[in-house]
Amino acid sequence: MNSWQGFYTGRRVVVTGGLGFLGSNLAHALASAGAEVTILDALVPGCGGNPENLEGTARCCRVVRTDIGEMAGTAGAIDDCEVVFNLAGEISHGRSMTEPERDGELNTAAQLRFLGLLAHMRPGIRVVYAGTRQVYGVPLSLPVDEDHPIDPVDFNGIHKYAATMYHMLYSRLGQLDAVVLRLSNVYGPRMALNVPGQGFLGVFLRRALLGEELGVYRPGDQLRDPIFVDDAVEAFLAAGAAPVLRARSFNLGGAQALRLDEIAEAIARAAGTESRVRFLEFPKQDKAFDIGSYVADWSRARQLLGWQPRTDFATGIERTLRFYRERWETYLPGAGSLWETAPGR
Amino acid sequence: MNSWQGFYTGRRVVVTGGLGFLGSNLAHALASAGAEVTILDALVPGCGGNPENLEGTARCCRVVRTDIGEMAGTAGAIDDCEVVFNLAGEISHGRSMTEPERDGELNTAAQLRFLGLLAHMRPGIRVVYAGTRQVYGVPLSLPVDEDHPIDPVDFNGIHKYAATMYHMLYSRLGQLDAVVLRLSNVYGPRMALNVPGQGFLGVFLRRALLGEELGVYRPGDQLRDPIFVDDAVEAFLAAGAAPVLRARSFNLGGAQALRLDEIAEAIARAAGTESRVRFLEFPKQDKAFDIGSYVADWSRARQLLGWQPRTDFATGIERTLRFYRERWETYLPGAGSLWETAPGR
Lengths: 345, 345
Fold this sequence. Notes:
The structure is a homodimer. The first copy, chain A, is of the alpha/beta class.
């Protein structure tokens, strides 16, 4: 039994960025839990939103197409909500380096306008914000807990941290009641495999599905702790329903710490295609904001939210591959399915 | 002999916010040191800029009236500069709470555009940024060193920290060579005594000069370490001239840690007017972002920049009061001079 069981039945919740990867998975879970879900999503090109992600929700979700920074569109959508899951934004580290102002507008300025409006219209409301481990920059030691110094190595990390500080400040002032979940790499169904900059796991999955090589940047022993999206969703549901917490920031990580080359091998193997792993030189423009190894210390989330990652990587990858193979035309249109033509399958 | 002696002779330097309090004092010092000074200042209402602050510089300074976030005006002013002192911005904590978007535009978005342009036009240039102790929020212990956790309690602190992170990121990328000086309360000649939100020291000085009561928020034992502006300027000059440093952030503080009531008493006494100190209840809207006591640990600046505050508070206040009394019509126009009418003076 989950800590939030029954909490969402009939509850009016808002999911910003709810047409995106994580947001839509959360919307599915909320709908299944009986919530009245309103989704705010501007479908900003490049951010990974996709209306097809909502296909098959247990209840109908209201979708409002608006930028969260636009008062007019947003006000009417949030006026009676009881919990907000704030996932709108751009996650591409690379794009933030070439277009820092765009990243600042999407991840910082729009958040300030949104939170100001929310604090005004729904004072004291619980907001669960999708933060990022990128705010820590290059880890000083592993695993990384929430007291690790803040030292982002790219504009995306800076802007997400500024938005984190907004959440904290409004909470200190008693105008919002925010919880920030700092995510490691999330993977699973509904990742935008066709959109650049959505993380290496989406690239690996796409290439494995297509039977293409998986390129691992040398040395390949960098650690990551990928979180299966259902586990991440579980943390959001727990955070949205939790009573007043004695901390507001929580690191989330996956069930296992794995090397990049292990991750690539596991995905290639699971895909059962001709996909193979190949080592590549680290591109200079990417190396500049590489963080080396990262593993989250999620013990605070376990203690205060009763959360822990439950899905091992092999299981998560298997579920993910199955999802895409059953929806090939939606997520990999025109790419042709090796799966269907692979011998013996 | 100063560490920067001779460094600025004939050197082309830019001072953003150079018509403001600290910026103009720095411009005076740079001009005296023989630098070719270009000032960028938009004279944004409320930010404290004042062209009269430049009166009497040892050499003529070029003044370009432009927002640092506006490419067109800025590009021509920075195209051959060798050192940038980046002081433009809004310092009012209170105004940031009522107009957070304005503060974000002035202190964060404009800085991003400026630094991007600077990194493009003058790659690798030394930039000395005027940061603030406000990024630390409520001190966990005193004195506060540069490793203190970041936890700003107002929008101004958030936005100044975002700009700090921009400086750090561009430096990490090798595109700028930034030094961030985190200032405690600075006081001295050329404070904007007529502009609200420029800090309690300006309010005290103004009221003391006018013979009005100095209101100290209870309990009055909050510690501050006011820096005389000449000492702050000295740190900027040292930071602009220093070779590559093994740290980029430096806390600056004053020569003494004093209680608010001691500060008020000292100013009232030095003013020699009818001014008296009175204790007031802490206004609720200000209390929300009060940081309690603050004292900087400036030992890193002493070690790496060879800097230390040299002016004791009594001396600094005396010099400050004398400055204003000699320029009453410029800085307190129409207020009438108690000084001139005070008996026996």
